[in-house]
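Sequence in, structure out. Go.
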Amino acid sequence: MKYLIVLAIVLTAGISGYAWWFSQPQINSTGKIHMDLYEKASDTWDPQIQILPFERSPSTTLTFRWHAPEKPYNHFVITISNADGTLLRKESGEHDRLSLDLDGLEPGKQYVFALQACLDPRCEAWYISQDEYGGTTVDRSIEDL
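Output:
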């Protein structure tokens, strides 16, 4: 009889956990280049990202600015990809940082960015920017005119 009670409790807990897991809001990754970041994120926020040409030379740098989430987080990670979705690299910044100059990019080329606010030092859990953002470096041939 004890085994039946324990089994009933375990089954009830398992069914409840399964229902809770699938009732959680899912983040829509449709049309995203960085789908895996969206599918595995804990939540989203609107960082109001600005991607601007670097104010000084070189033309291979973009200035990336954002607003922090109101929820607690550890640090930021910016994922940079080519427009075709090929991962280029990731850059990270400290907790209180709200901008980063991304250098070493190619002139006149478009990039796609996703911003994560990591919840732990290893970034095993994170918030993700509501949208991906595009930015284009200055074309040197135009810059020389």
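Check: The first helix runs from residue 2 to 23. Helices lie at 2-23, 35-39, 140-143.
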